[in-house]
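Researcher: Let's continue the batch. This sequence belongs to Leucyl/phenylalanyl-tRNA--protein transferase, and it's 193 residues. Same format as the previous ones, please.
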Amino acid sequence: MIPFTPEKVVWAYSMGIFPMYVEEEKAILWFRPERRAIIPLDGFHISRSLAKTIRKGRFEVRINTAFEEVMRGCADRPEGTWITEEFIQVYTELHRRGLAHSVETWREGRLVGGTYGVALGGAFMAESMFHRETDASKVALAALVQRLKERNFVLLDVQYLTPHLQRLGAIEIPHQVYLQRLQKALELPCQFI
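Model: Same format as before. Here are the C-alpha cells for Leucyl/phenylalanyl-tRNA--protein transferase:
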C-alpha cells in the first residue's frame, strides 16, 4: 500500500498514477486508468455564452489566494466526495511547497468557483472544480488553460472523461500515450507562479 503523503502524491503523478478516496473501501486508492482524459491546451472549447461571460468580466480571477477554500468548495457535493480531510491536508501541504495551485473566481468579494491541481514540470494535474454561480468554474478553467499556455505547459490532465469536460474539449488517450506525453512534460522547466 502506497502511503498518502505529499512526497508519494508527487511520485505517483510522475508515474501516471493518481489518488482517490473510495467510500466502499474506506481507503485512499491509487488509479492508473487504461484511458486518460486530457484537455489539449489548443483544443479547449469556449462556447459563445462563456466567451461573453469572460468578456463582461463578471468574475474576478485570482490565483492561489484561497487554496484550501477551493478544495472545500470542490468537496461540498450533495452526492458525496472523494476529497477527504486527509486529502485537504496533503494537498494544502503541496500548496505550501509551491506545487499545488488554485485558480479562483470571485464576485463581490465572495469565492464563487474555482479549480485546483498540481503542477510538475510542464504538466498540470487538475483535480476538481466547483461553482456556486453559473459559469464560475468554467471561467476558472478557462483562466487555468490561458495561464498554462502563457507559461509553456504542454499537458493538462483531467483524469477521467465526463460529458461536461468533453464539451470543453477534453479527449481520452491511451495510457501509454499519456505516459509519453507526461515524461516529456516533466522535463520542462515551467513555473506556474
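Researcher: Any comment?
Model: The chain has a mean pLDDT of 95.
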